[in-house]
């Protein structure tokens, strides 16, 4: 999808809510993949944030060159390795919201 200016960039917000007692494990797992993900083709930004309102919740703010780059990330070793641990680490499925920059 491109916006009115023809920009195919995909912005994504992912919210990761840890299972009880797993906040530190989730944090370490996310921090461990940052360098690898940031070197993936099409990755413009891959930023991890800790929620100030909900301790333990991690919010990822991502920017990808296009949908193909995001799709590639979803099958890359760093993410698939983390996703394989979601059942143990997360108390709920990740919340994902793809965004289009408008101004």
The residue fraction in helices comes out at 25-40%
Q: What is the number of strand segments?
A: 4
Strand content: 25-35%
Task: Report the average pLDDT across residues.
Answer: 94
Task: Going across the biggest sheet, name each strand in turn.
Answer: 2-3-1-4
Overall 3D shape: globular
Largest sheet: 4 strands, antiparallel
Helix tally?
Answer: 4
Helix-strand category: alpha+beta
Along the chain, the helix and strand elements come as: EHEEHHHE
Gyration radius, in Å? 14 Å
Distance between the termini: 17 Å
Which stretches are low in confidence, meaning pLDDT under 50 for 5 or more residues running? none
EC number: 1.-.-.-
Domain ABM: 10-99
Enzyme class: oxidoreductase
Protein name: Quinol monooxygenase
Short key terms for the protein model shown above:
alpha+beta; 103 residues; 4 helices
Explain what this protein looks like in three dimensions.
This is Quinol monooxygenase. There is one protein chain. This protein has 103 residues and is of the alpha+beta class. It has four helices and four strands. It has helices at residues 23-38, 67-75, 77-83, 86-89; strands spanning 10-16, 43-50, 58-64, 95-99. It has a four-stranded antiparallel sheet, covered by helices on one side. A hairpin with a 7-residue loop joins β2 and β3 (58-64). The model has no long low-confidence stretch (mean pLDDT 94).
């Amino acid at each position: 999808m491109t916006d009115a200016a023809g920009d195919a960039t995909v912005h994504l917000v992912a919210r990761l809510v840890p299972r009880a007692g797993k906040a530190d494990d989730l944090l370490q797992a996310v921090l461990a993949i940052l360098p690898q993900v940031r070197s993936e083709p099409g990755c413009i930004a891959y930023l991890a944030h800790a929620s100030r309102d909900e301790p333990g919740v991690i919010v990822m703010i991502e920017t990808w060159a296009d949908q193909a780059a995001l799709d590639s990330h979803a099958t890359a070793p760093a993410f698939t390795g983390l996703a394989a641990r979601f059942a143990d680490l997360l108390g709920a499925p990740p919340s994902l919201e793809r965004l289009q920059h408008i101004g």
